[in-house]
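Thread: Newbie trying to understand structure tokens

Hi all, I'm a second-year student working on a class project, and my supervisor (Dr. K.) asked me to get a predicted structure for one chain before our next meeting. I've only ever worked with sequences, so writing a 3D structure as a token string is new to me. If someone could post the tokens and maybe explain what I'm looking at, I'd be very grateful. Here's the chain:
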Amino acid sequence: MSTPTHRLRTRITDLLGIEHPIMQGGMQWVGRAELAAAVSNAGGLGVVTALTQPTPEALAAEIARTRGLTDRPFAVNLTILPTITPPPYEEYREAIVSSGVRIVETAGANPRDHMPYFKSVGVTVIHKCTSVRHAIRAQAEGVDVVSIDGFECAGHPGEDDIPGLVLLPAAADVLDIPILASGGLADARGLVAALALGADGINMGTRFMCTQEAPIHDEIKKRIVAATERDTDLIFRPLRNTSRVASNTVSREVVEILGRGGEFADVRGLVAGARGRRVFEEGDTEAGVWTVGMCQGLIDDIPTVAALLERMIEEAADLIRARLNQTLAVVDPEG
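---
Reply by user tm_fold:
Sure, no problem. This is what the structure looks like when written as tokens:
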């Protein structure tokens, strides 16, 4: 595989010490060592998902495995969920830091309680937000980067239903820190558009699921390639905890039950995490609910990570140099 002949230098590449302003999403059951290392080795920022690992000790081992596959920067995603029996976040946090990781992506709840510790040990914090108001709050809490998740994204898009085309420039107008665009991004066109809208880089999840190194069953990758942008469902809408998932018999049943007034207890068995894990491990697309973004409609192949990033950077350079320059005409005021 050849090396891209162009580079896109932004505040993100400078801050994180990476070649290309492209970050891998922190995906449950997907963000493992082989994918994270492949993204980092290709010049992006790979991400290991902390809560994919059952214990902090297992996370430390996964970080060590990643470090054995790459000598480049990578991050760990720590998603903070408001649950009755939360994971031991402090122990996961300690496993991250003691393993030498210095870039952390937080998501879910406000990272306020974790910021003093992370900043005291020199960790760069990227926080994922689904609204401008949450991004402003995160900046005030001291995060270094915000990842702005538009309505198109996989997983939790928030409850405002604002797509990236509006959300990104609205955030860029009021934030001082670097911004990553997330949601609906799968190719060079999305990368260039995100930069034009005020982002300093992009975060991709679904697109990286469809790479050779993604540690999920090939049948899931084939399903994503075959799907269109319309093949997702929004579950948990009546519960104000919306999540975008692949449309299948399970997701449609969840939508139907909650739509007629059901409660979470009525769908708990359908949406169990163990069932979603089976999807990725066994390739049965109907085994449970599994997250995927609308950008699946833009994906038509399963390349290596290196080939994907090379293609994106070169096509982005062509778009900026050729297509955009061709449309820019200088008007002579003298007529």
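A couple of things are worth pointing out once you decode it. DSSP finds 14 helices and ten strands in the chain. The CA atoms of residues 19 and 174 lie 27 Å apart. Feel free to ask follow-ups in this thread.
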